[in-house]
Amino acid sequence: MGVENTDLLEQNDSEIFKIEGDLSILNIDEFRENLIKLIDSKNNLVLDCSKLESIDLSIVQLIISLILERNNIGFSTKVDYSDNELITIFFNKTGLSQVFNKITKSNKNE
């Protein structure tokens, strides 16, 4: 389960939230609790998906909601999956990469 292996690292004015394993509706509550703690913490938050194995749309919806909420209070959130070929292919085929790029104003994952 990805939430058990999730790690938080600080770098400069950013926090990196490492997401590993499988994320689904089965562990969304624990994942949501960990993310909610970060909403008001640092200005810059990076969700590192480099070790993510699978993700379902309930988690994607939660991440998009988090990003939009943080955008509304002036914070920056990025989703980095550039080092994860499987997740990159999934996000590209579903159009989610365009959604993430638009709401985070980043093209790093392409």
Reconstruct the topology from this structure:
Blueprint: E1 7-11, E2 14-23, H1 28-36, E3 44-55, H2 57-72, E4 76-80, H3 85-94, H4 96-104
Parallel strand pairs: 2-3, 3-4
Antiparallel strand pairs: 1-2
Helix pairs in contact: 1-2
Brief rundown of the structure:
By secondary structure, the protein is an alpha/beta fold.
The total count of helices amounts to 4
Q: How many β strands by DSSP?
A: 4
How far apart are the termini?
Answer: 27 Å
Please provide the ordered H/E string of secondary-structure elements.
Answer: EEHEHEHH
Characterization of the model:
It is built from 4 helices and 4 strands, in the order ββαβαβαα. With 110 residues, it is of the alpha/beta class. It has a 4-stranded mixed β-sheet with strand order 1-2-3-4, with helices on one face. Strand 2, helix 1 and strand 3 form a beta-alpha-beta unit. The chain starts with 6 loop residues before the first strand and ends in a 6-residue tail after the last helix. The N terminus is likely disordered.
Characteristic key phrases:
globular, 110 residues, 4 strands
